[in-house]
């Protein structure tokens, strides 16, 4: 086989050699004959005569190495090209619908590949394992938190059977497992240092930070792009503070890796020295994050101060995450068996009550080749849903083409019959037809890749939705392209097979006689149309559910202004500002922002309202009014003019303003719901409310209208809100809000200038309009609604084309019958109805199959819906109506054509 | 002109054997093979010259002979074929088969 292939590749050269050999043969023969006494001319002719047909023999010899398969394939492809150009409209339609289907699949698959399948760009990623633990949920049954995990800094997520899974460990566990580890060659730890203020030569920006232990880079087997990486000597309390920066940061801030080495930088106003630059492809261990800055673990003592110092000795404080590199020859199961008892022993010693001992965390190793799983947890389910939808769309496209091919097979019946009766093997004809369909599919695939290039770009935009540090990098690599190519070929075979087999049925004689009839083909066509309608309905229902979810989310009453507000965040504390000066600094800035022409009011708060309770330090717990405990009120620390800027009506008293200073009497503004619930008809202004932290007493100075506190999807949030004066607390990060005339983003430049003037060490972060900030929290719903609407339109169009084609074909076949009916007095309306009745019947059968399927399939997307039942009858009905109308529309044109048939002409034709 | 020499088409596949046998004596180019077969059969066998080349291609593809560019006795560039080890084995197999076949035919003819 290999030799064949080589011969085939060298075909042209061999062919030339063969010709030369034959020429030589003829020449020698002629020379011999001439020597026997013939004239030169006669000798040449005689030599040629005796040799036989030179061209044929050449061709025969070539065939020895060309083999029939390849030459026939060449024939088929040439023939296919001719057929395709002869039916331009059909080919274009088929290629286009396939291209859309394949393009959509390639796009979604490339995202799956990047999230679910790709390995970390480090040496031998297969030997990395992530350390996790799982335990029974901390709050089962009783409300008390009885778990050895008393304090956390990090993430936990639900595992199997309601268990809690996490990657956070106390520092003591890390130290214990690191000692004399028989299964890991290295065990290293790290934890998210969040965003820090990174000042280089007086210019500050926001830098995402990762704290890493001394073994981190060695364990990952990463070598620096410049300088050296953090090692164990750097990771001790008291060691000189050093930093490793990412390759991108070195380029943006220092103009290249080599010029960054040895440079002093300030991280949250603490001096560090840059000792190295990570390689360009390295992004840490979490594909969801790409740290700009790597700091030795123990430097958090310098940066975070007292809070960090508590974390190391506390065996119930869970924060450090770990990965290990297996020693050669050790399997993950062996490592698990070796380490689990050790961890159990250690963690058992940290439990103090029986309740805690009952639900001790158990160590669990997971493969670490692809890094941490946060992206996978976040995106895998949505991606599977999307993949299913695009898969269905491709299925519709394939069915559609199969249908069109069937219709076309009718036109080619005579051709096939002639070929078969002339002795062409049936397999040979099927092969030729399949070659044609695979060619169509390949063209579709090639065009689909172009669609996918565009798709990946716009999809990334849609998914990231303006998020900063969005690290999802889907690309069309060889893996993805290979899958696309395979998909195209499979599609070609799938949609080509039925028509090919159908049209080569050996009932040659009737076909030769009249070229009509063909019951099985019609049945096949009907089955295909029904399948298309059923699949379209599924996609329509999904789109309907997602659009409905989005409408529900958009109709949530905010109670505050969404448009014409610019948000941005500042963190003066990270730049070195301290109490009490920091409050004055923030207050001064607010006044300056308010003086920008076009800004009608400016305010500040600890976070935007939509993110309240999720960002920054939240004040939680029961509050008190006198002796009455308030259970579910939320606190938002806000600055002067907050209600005015957010356009929240003031119902009584006043809002928080400049009079509320750090030293003055602490005040609060409460929402109407809270006032009505706890003060009934009394006027709350002048009364007192006690906060849970430090038991602070606040005087109520005003009542606001109700507003939606926190995210849109959070169904438990109450409308009870307490606004406190931000200056009377001491939060770190501030979110400013400017109410602007016209497009808020026009004022970004002025904001930057004002902040730079006030303190150039403070970067302005998270600049966004209020509308975009709100949409960000529902980005998945937005994406789904937009994509699925597009998918639904695509599916509906394709299905309609299929239906139209089928009905047209049927009408063409029934010309005679319709002619007779009309000659016998059938009205036009009756003819239209006759045709449409079949369309409706097909649609009804499709729906009958699809409704139960939709009911059960929609349960799978339940978690993506908001205030919408998966079996929402309105959506189902609407999808049904849309589908039926589309079907009638597609069927009406051919039906009308049927009613215009001239009976005389039709009968003469017969 | 005399008697017409016999064309070699009575026994299918025997052309391959003849070529292998000829090449086992001497490395030759295409025309040389034709000549040698004719000579050694006392002009009894006349190879259909055109069929020689497909046969050569087939033999080469099977790895029984090997063609390389060389120079003929009258100094012309030509592909000179030589038999390979596998070719010799194949020749032995075919010779045995041929002997059996001719013996069988001879018996049939003798019984008449």
Structure description:
The complex is a heterodimer of chains A (910) and B (112). Chain A is an alpha+beta fold and 910 residues long. In chain A, 52% of the residues lie in helices and 16% in strands. In chain A, the strands form five sheets. In chain A, strands 5-6-11-8-10-9 form a six-stranded mixed barrel. The two termini of chain A are 55 Å apart. Chain B has a single domain, classed as Orthogonal Bundle (Arc Repressor Mutant, subunit A), CATH 1.10.10. Chain B has four helices and five strands; from the N terminus they run E-H-E-H-E-H-E-E-H. In chain B, helix 1 crosses helix 4. Chains A and B meet through helix 1, helix 2 and helix 4 of A and helix 2, helix 3 and strand 5 of B.
Key features?
heterodimer, A: 910 residues, alpha+beta, six-stranded mixed barrel, six-stranded mixed sheet, 26 strands, globular, B: 112 residues, Arc Repressor Mutant, subunit A, two-stranded parallel sheet, 4 helices
Short précis:
With 910 residues, chain A is α+β, with helices and mostly antiparallel strands.
Multimerization state: heterodimer
Strand arrangement in the largest pleated sheet of chain B? 2-5-4
Average pLDDT score of chain A: 83
| Relative strand content of chain B | 15-25%
Strand and helix map with partners:
The complex is a heterodimer of chains A (910) and B (112).
Chain A: H1 2-9, H2 11-35, H3 40-51, H4 54-86, H5 88-117, E1 128-135, E2 151-152, E3 156-158, E4 164-166, H6 171-178, E5 184-200, E6 203-212, H7 216-220, E7 226-227, E8 242-245, H8 247-254, E9 264-267, E10 270-277, E11 293-296, H9 300-303, H10 306-311, E12 317-318, E13 321-326, H11 332-348, H12 354-358, E14 362-367, H13 374-411, H14 413-421, H15 426-464, H16 478-503, H17 508-514, H18 519-554, E15 565-571, H19 581-594, E16 599-605, E17 623-625, E18 628-630, E19 634-638, H20 642-645, E20 650-653, E21 667-671, H21 672-679, E22 688-690, E23 697-704, E24 721-725, E25 733-740, H22 748-758, E26 765-769, H23 770-777, H24 779-813, H25 815-823, H26 828-857, H27 873-899, H28 903-909
Helix pairs in contact in A: 2-3, 2-4, 4-15, 5-13, 5-15, 5-16, 6-11, 13-16, 13-18, 13-24, 14-17, 15-16, 18-24, 18-26, 18-27, 24-27, 25-28, 26-27
Chain B: E1 6-7, H1 14-25, E2 28-29, H2 30-40, E3 45-46, H3 49-61, E4 65-71, E5 77-83, H4 85-111
Parallel strand pairs in B: 1-3
Antiparallel strand pairs in B: 2-5, 4-5
Helix pairs in contact in B: 1-4
């Amino acid at each position: 086989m290999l030799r064949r292939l080589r011969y085939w590749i060298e075909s042209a050269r061999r062919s030339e050699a063969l010709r030369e050999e034959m020429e030589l043969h003829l020449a020698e023969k002629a020379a011999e004959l001439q020597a026997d006494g013939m004239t030169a001319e006669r000798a040449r002719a005689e030599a040629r005569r005796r040799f036989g047909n030179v061209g044929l023999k050449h061709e025969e010899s070539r065939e020895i190495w060309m083999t029939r398969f390849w030459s026939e394939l060449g024939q088929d492809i040439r023939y296919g090209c001719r057929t395709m150009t002869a039916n331009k409209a059909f080919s274009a339609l088929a290629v286009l619908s396939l291209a859309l289907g394949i393009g959509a699949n390639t796009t979604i698959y490339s995202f799956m590949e990047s999230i679910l399948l790709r390995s970390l760009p480090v040496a031998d990623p297969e030997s990395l394992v992530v350390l996790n633990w799982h335990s029974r949920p901390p709050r089962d049954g009783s409300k008390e938190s009885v778990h050895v995990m008393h304090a956390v800094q990090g993430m936990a997520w639900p595992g199997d059977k309601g268990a809690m899974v996490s990657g956070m460990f106390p520092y003591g566990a890390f130290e214990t497992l690191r000692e004399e580890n028989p299964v890991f060659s290295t065990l290293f730890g790290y934890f998210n240092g969040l965003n820090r203020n990174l000042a280089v030569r007086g210019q500050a920006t926001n830098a995402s930070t990762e704290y890493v232990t001394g073994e981190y880079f060695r364990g990952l087997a990463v070598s620096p792009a410049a300088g050296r990486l953090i090692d164990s000597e750097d990771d001790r309390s008291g060691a000189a503070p050093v930093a490793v920066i990412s390759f991108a940061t070195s380029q943006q801030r220092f103009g290249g890796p080599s010029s960054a080495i040895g440079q002093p930088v300030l991280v949250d106003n603490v001096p560090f020295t840059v000792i190295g630059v990570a390689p360009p492809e390295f992004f840490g261990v979490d594909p969801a994050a790409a740290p700009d800055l790597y700091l030795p673990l123990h430097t958090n003592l310098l940066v975070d101060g007292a809070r960090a110092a508590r974390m190391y000795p506390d065996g119930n404080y869970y924060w450090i995450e770990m990965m290990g590199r297996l020693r050669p020859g050790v399997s993950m199961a062996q490592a698990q068996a070796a380490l689990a008892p050790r961890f159990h022993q250690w963690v058992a010693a940290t439990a103090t009550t029986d309740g805690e001992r009952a639900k001790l965390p158990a160590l669990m190793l997971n493969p670490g080749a692809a890094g941490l799983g946060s992206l996978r947890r976040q995106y895998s389910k949505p991606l599977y849903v999307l993949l299913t939808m695009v898969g269905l769309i491709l299925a519709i496209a394939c069915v559609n083409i199969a249908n069109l091919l069937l219709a076309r097979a009718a036109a080619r019946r005579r051709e096939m019959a002639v070929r078969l009766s002339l002795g062409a093997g049936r397999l040979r004809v099927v092969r030729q037809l399949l070659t044609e369909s695979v060619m169509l599919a390949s063209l579709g695939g090639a065009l689909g890749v172009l669609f996918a290039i565009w798709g990946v770009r716009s999809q990334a935009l849609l998914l990231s939705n303006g998020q900063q540090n969005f690290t999802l990098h889907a690309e069309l690599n060889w893996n993805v392209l290979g899958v696309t190519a395979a998909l195209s070929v499979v599609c070609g075979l799938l949609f080509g097979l039925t028509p090919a087999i159908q049209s080569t049925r050996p009932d040659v004689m009737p076909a030769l006689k009249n070229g009509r009839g063909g019951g099985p083909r019609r049945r096949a066509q009907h089955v295909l149309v029904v399948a298309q309608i059923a699949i379209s309905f599924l996609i329509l229902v999904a789109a309907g559910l997602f659009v409905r979810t989005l409408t529900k989310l958009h109709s949530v009453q905010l109670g505050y202004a969404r448009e014409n507000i610019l948000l941005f965040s500042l963190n003066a504390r990270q730049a070195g500002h301290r109490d009490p000066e920091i409050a004055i600094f923030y207050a001064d800035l607010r006044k300056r922002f308010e003086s920008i022409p076009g800004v009608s009011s400016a305010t500040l708060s600890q976070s935007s309202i939509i993110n309240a309770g999720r960002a920054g330090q939240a004040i939680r717990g029961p509050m008190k009014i006198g002796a009455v405990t308030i259970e579910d009120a939320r606190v938002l620390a806000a600055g002067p003019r907050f209600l005015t800027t957010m356009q929240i009506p003031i119902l009584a008293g006043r809002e928080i303003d400049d009079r509320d200073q750090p030293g003055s009497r602490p005040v609060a503004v409460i929402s109407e719901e809270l006032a009505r619930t706890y003060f009934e008809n009394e006027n709350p202004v002048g009364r007192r409310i006690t906060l849970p932290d430090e038991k602070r007493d606040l005087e109520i100075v005003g009542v606001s209208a109700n507003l939606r506190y926190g995210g849109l999807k959070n169904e438990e949030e109450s409308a009870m809100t307490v606004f406190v004066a931000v200056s009377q607390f001491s939060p770190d990060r501030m979110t400013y809000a400017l109410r602007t005339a016209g497009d808020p983003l026009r004022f970004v430049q002025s904001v930057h200038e004002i902040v730079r003037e006030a303190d150039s060490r403070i970067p302005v972060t998270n600049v966004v309009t209020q509308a975009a900030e709100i949409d960000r929290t529902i980005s998945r719903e937005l994406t789904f609604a937009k994509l699925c609407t597009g998918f639904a339109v695509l599916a509906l169009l394709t299905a309609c084309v299929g239906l139209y084609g089928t009905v047209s074909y049927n009408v063409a076949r029934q010309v005679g019958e319709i002619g007779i009916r009309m000659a016998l007095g059938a009205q036009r309306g009756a003819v239209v109805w006759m045709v449409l009745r079949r369309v409706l019947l097909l649609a009804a059968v499709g729906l009958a199959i699809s409704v139960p399927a939709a009911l059960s399939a929609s349960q799978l997307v339940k978690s993506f819906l908001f205030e919408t039942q998966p079996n929402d009858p309105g959506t189902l009905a609407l999808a049904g109506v849309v589908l039926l109308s589309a079907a009638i529309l597609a069927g009406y044109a051919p039906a009308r054509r049927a009613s215009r048939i001239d009976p005389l002409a039709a009968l003469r034709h017969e | 002109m005399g008697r017409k020499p016999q064309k070699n088409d009575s026994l299918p596949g025997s052309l391959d054997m003849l070529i292998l046998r000829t090449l086992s004596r001497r490395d030759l180019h295409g025309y040389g093979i034709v000549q040698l077969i004719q000579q050694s059969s006392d002009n009894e066998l006349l190879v259909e010259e055109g069929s020689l080349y497909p046969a050569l291609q087939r033999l080469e593809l099977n790895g029984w002979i090997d063609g390389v560019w060389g120079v003929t006795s009258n100094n012309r560039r030509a592909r000179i074929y030589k038999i390979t080890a596998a070719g010799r084995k194949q020749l032995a197999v075919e010779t045995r088969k041929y002997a059996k076949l001719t013996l069988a035919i001879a018996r049939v003819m003798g019984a008449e």
